[in-house]
Design a protein that fits this description.
about 300 residues, mainly alpha, two-stranded antiparallel ribbon, 13 helices, 2 strands, about 0% strand, Nuc_sug_transpt, transmembrane
Length: about 300
């Protein structure tokens, strides 16, 4: 089960950057980014409810799968929802400063922030071999995305770097915090937990629409500028969001980081066919280092 979800997450993440870039027309988004994010949260909420309805039909309503809850339980969900909101909005604006491969390099900051926060917040010990594997993972991912025709690692302006650092911290913190919520009550049905997380996601994204795109939505309509690719992108984001929460519940953030890194290498391979991207020696070297890192990480698990 864990393996299937991890593979699904890897596949979905690898197509994410490509779909975001594809959804631009003449270099800009024709649609309102906030409405797209709102629809992603709505779709995740709907899918969680549908899965829940199936559980109720098969098992009946129990203490662990009922939607009714306490203020105490629900009060923790707005925090990750707000963090994800900011991170998701930044994800679109960072493309003003970086291209898709550059974005993937900067995303490697996530790897380190997740590892450190994982250690600090969840008090989980990673073995020394796993920390070494983590640093190798970062190095391998960065090497894989180097531009062979230039000496500069990244031509990213200062704003791009700042956005990337903020995104890495938000993403790491939101991920680790969500995992803590999911695992606090292991017997609680994952779809109930998802439902509450996404309800707050919808509420925050609705506020973002009001603040940022209210005029555009009022004048041109909610779905202005949407295309088939936009719809695919929304579907992709929703499914990968559900896959992430399953990984959080049944595996952990470290598994998520690794599947995202492997996804990044897949993105580059797909980009060869779609955008004529050239695979360089650096890419192959980076891929080798990432593979070694994945092996070391699983081999270096601390004894329980």
């Amino acid at each position: 089960n864990r393996t299937i979800v991890t593979f699904a997450l890897t596949f979905l993440t690898s197509s994410q950057a490509i779909l975001i870039v594809w959804s631009k027309r003449a270099g800009k988004y024709e649609y309102s980014v906030t409405t797209a994010n709102f629809l992603v949260e709505t779709l995740k909420c709907f899918l969680s409810l549908a899965a829940l309805a199936r559980t109720w039909k098969n098992e009946g309503v129990t203490e662990d799968n009922r939607l009714s809850t306490t203020i105490n339980e629900v009060s923790v969900y707005p925090i990750p929802a707000a963090l994800y909101l900011v991170k998701n909005l930044l994800q679109y604006y960072i493309f003003a400063y970086v291209d898709a491969p550059g974005y993937q390099i900067l995303k490697n900051l996530n790897i380190i922030s997740t590892g450190v926060l994982y250690r600090m917040i969840l008090k989980r010990k990673l073995s020394e071999i796993q920390w070494a594997a983590f640093i190798l993972l970062c190095a391998g991912c960065t090497t894989a995305q180097l531009n062979p025709s230039s000496d500069h690692v990244l031509q990213t302006p200062f704003q791009g770097w700042m956005m990337a650092i903020v995104m890495a911290l938000l993403s790491g913190f939101a991920g680790v915090y969500t995992e803590a919520i999911m695992k606090k009550r292991p017997s609680r049905n994952i779809n109930v937990q998802n439902f509450w997380l996404y309800v707050f996601g919808m509420a925050f994204n609705a506020v973002a629409i009001l603040i940022q795109d209210f005029d555009a939505v009022m004048n041109k309509g909610f779905f202005h500028g949407y295309s088939f690719v936009t719809v695919l992108m929304i579907l992709n984001h929703a499914l990968s969001g559900l896959a992430v929460s399953m990984v959080m519940k049944y595996a952990d953030n470290i598994v998520k980081v690794y599947s995202t890194s492997v996804a990044m290498l897949l993105t580059a391979v797909v980009a060869v066919f779609l955008f004529g991207f050239h695979l360089s020696l650096a890419f192959f070297l980076g891929t080798t280092v990432v593979s070694v890192s994945v092996y070391l990480h699983s081999a270096g698990k601390p004894p329980r």
